[in-house]
């Protein structure tokens, strides 16, 4: 899926009429356009504003060690001659002190045997184009201007030189709320963006950008105009250490949500790091771990073939066609009821009630979930206050949710090929190449002229303005669509010939159209960077987006038998 539109756009549009629909009680963050959104407030994070805390166990050990040293020092009494010797002491040759051995380096790798491969390792190297906000380093362009271009507020797709196809070789990428994760051809995991709750899986502590108070105001030194002041360790893609993964591990997929990241291995295991959030703040990574700053193995997950991420929940599909879910379940996005007194149970992966052995794909919106079966039919559950699940009945009601997976009967006439959810809308394409959308309307999320909507397929407010498209509807003017991706309130459609169209909320240039105005209908993205290129993938975060294209760059070699 296009991972996840997980952060609310920072610029709200003015003048939106009040909707009849109301936000779920769990919500605290405002969504663009002003009908209430349900997602937890996760966009207040700032790059570099938080540092990984000291591991509690390590801290206690150091404290204990310090106390031991104090005790030993206090119990050693000085030698005195107050006691007369009963007889002359016989001196013995001093025994040499044993030679101290160097401290062993702790091996953090999981002690597991690599299993039989069940997933294909991606090998197709891709060009990476970025655009959108960038002030938190989420574009991965570093912290400095390059050729006079700032690494923030990128209006149209820009080739990311830090992710060069020749030098780095990205083969798969996922966007979180304010960070991103990529997999390279040489089996490295790269991360960049906001690291406030360990989402990057590596230390990004930075003491830079501090003013020297000893220098006078009239100092001859000049500020570096090319330096934006963004934390370079967050804004520059860097590898997660291999020391946390079992030796011989090969990766096949990376995914990102708001404040966490996960990777899937060739033998069907899952590693993760970061944390999940709820409307109350940090929920936790597991029942016992609040924030996980480095990768750990999730031992209960085995034989997994695909992962999908929402804002704060994950779906995992296994070889038997069964689906597990974990994370925040406040909007029933896990497909099971979570009670407050036992809310941490949501952090344990558990099965979702779907037809056994029939599910072949999984996908997520920010707070809703989907599963596709072998027949191209779609099951959905989770938050439905804007009709984003597509199940008839309660769209527009207070705290409307679909409690358990339900077949979306409104899609029964379509063999769905690809589906992805945004904050409060959903996009899909069918085997005919048609683009289908439904959900929230007031930010042009569905890509359909509001004047063409009727009371038969939409819900209107008191001013007779359409607010929710409750019936999945084919979008006119676009065909041959083979895949889709959704951001919080913007979307992308890719066609068979490698063209990419975008629409929706664009206050941070996340549509790639060079405008901060809403893009009302699917519009071709066309600039010099991607013109003539075949775009094969797209991803969207909260306020930024990424395109992936086939590359013409030849990989660099080390000169030994053509090896990289």
Automatic annotation (TrEMBL):
Pfam families cross-referenced by the UniProt entry: WD40_RLD (PF25390)
Keyword set, alphabetical order: Guanine-nucleotide releasing factor, Repeat
Disordered, as annotated region: 1-108, 203-239
Bias (Acidic residues) ranges: 219-228
RCC repeat spans: 126-186, 268-320, 321-375, 376-432, 433-497, 498-551
InterPro entries noted in UniProt: Ran_GTPase-activating, RCC1-like_dom, RCC1/BLIP-II, Reg_chr_condens
Domain RCC1-like: 127-547
Composition skew (Low complexity), residue ranges: 1-47, 81-97
Top-rank taxon, per record: Eukaryota
Record field: compositional bias (Basic and acidic residues): 98-108, 209-218
MF terms (GO), sorted A to Z: guanyl-nucleotide exchange factor activity
GO biological process assignments: mitotic nuclear membrane organization; positive regulation of protein export from nucleus; Ran protein signal transduction; regulation of exit from mitosis; regulation of mitotic spindle assembly; regulation of mitotic spindle elongation
PROSITE patterns: RCC1_1, RCC1_2, RCC1_3
Record's GO cellular component terms: chromatin; cytoplasm
Designated name of the protein: RCC1-like domain-containing protein
């Amino acid at each position: 899926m296009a991972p996840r539109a997980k952060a609310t756009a920072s610029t709200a549009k003015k003048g939106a009429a009040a909707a009849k629909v109301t936000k779920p009680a769990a919500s605290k963050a405002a969504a663009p356009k002003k009908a209430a959104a349900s997602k937890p407030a996760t966009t207040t994070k700032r790059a570099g504003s938080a540092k990984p805390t000291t591991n509690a166990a390590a801290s206690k050990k150091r404290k204990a060690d310090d106390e031991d040293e104090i005790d030993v020092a206090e119990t050693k009494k000085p030698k005195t001659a107050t006691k007369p010797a009963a007889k002359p002491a016989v001196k013995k040759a001093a025994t040499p002190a044993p030679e101290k051995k160097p401290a062993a380096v702790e091996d953090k790798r999981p002690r597991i045997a690599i299993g039989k491969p069940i997933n294909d390792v991606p090998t197709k190297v891709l060009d990476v184009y970025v655009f959108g906000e960038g002030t938190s380093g989420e574009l991965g362009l570093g912290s400095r201007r390059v050729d006079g271009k700032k690494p923030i507020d990128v209006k149209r797709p820009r080739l990311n030189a830090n992710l060069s196809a020749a030098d780095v070789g990205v083969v798969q990428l996922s966007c979180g709320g304010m960070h991103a994760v990529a997999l390279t051809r040489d089996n490295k995991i790269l991360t960049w963006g906001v690291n406030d709750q360990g989402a990057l899986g590596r230390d990004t502590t930075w003491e830079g950008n501090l003013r020297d108070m000893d220098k006078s105001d009239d100092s001859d030194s000049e500020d570096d105009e090319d330096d934006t002041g963004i934390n370079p360790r967050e804004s520059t893609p860097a590898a997660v250490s291999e020391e946390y993964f079992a030796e011989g591990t090969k990766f096949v997929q990376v995914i990102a949500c708001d404040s966490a990241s996960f990777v899937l291995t060739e033998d069907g295991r899952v590693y993760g790091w970061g944390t999940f959030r709820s409307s109350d703040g940090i929920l936790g990574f597991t029942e016992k771990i609040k924030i996980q700053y480095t990768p750990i193995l999730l031992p209960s997950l085995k034989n997994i073939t695909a992962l999908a991420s929402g804002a704060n929940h994950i779906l995992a599909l296994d070889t038997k066609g069964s689906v597990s879910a974990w994370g925040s379940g406040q909007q029933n996005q896990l497909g099971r009821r979570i009670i407050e007194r036992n809310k941490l149970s949501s952090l344990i992966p558990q099965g979702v009630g779907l037809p056994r052995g029939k599910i072949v794909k999984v996908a997520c919106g920010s707070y809703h979930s989907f599963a596709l079966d072998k027949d191209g039919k779609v099951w959905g559950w989770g938050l439905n206050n804007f009709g984003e699940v597509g199940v008839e009945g309660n769209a527009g009601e207070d705290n409307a949710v679909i409690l358990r997976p339900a077949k979306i009967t409104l899609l029964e006439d379509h063999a769905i090929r690809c589906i992805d959810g945004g904050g409060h809308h959903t996009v899909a394409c069918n085997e005919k190449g048609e683009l289908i959308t439904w959900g929230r309307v007031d930010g042009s999320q569905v890509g359909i002229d509001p004047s063409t909507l009727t009371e038969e397929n939409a819900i209107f407010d008191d001013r007779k303005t359409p607010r929710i498209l409750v019936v999945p509807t084919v979008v006119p003017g676009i065909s041959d669509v083979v895949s889709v991706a959704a951001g919080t309130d913007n979307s992308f459609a890719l066609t068979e010939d490698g063209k990419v169209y975008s629409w929706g909320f664009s206050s941070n240039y996340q549509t790639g159209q060079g405008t901060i105005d809403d893009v009302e209908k699917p519009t071709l993205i066309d600039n010099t960077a991607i013109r003539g290129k075949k775009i094969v993938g797209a991803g969207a975060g909260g306020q930024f987006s990424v395109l992936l294209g086939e590359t013409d760059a030849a990989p660099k070699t080390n000169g030994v038998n053509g090896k990289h």
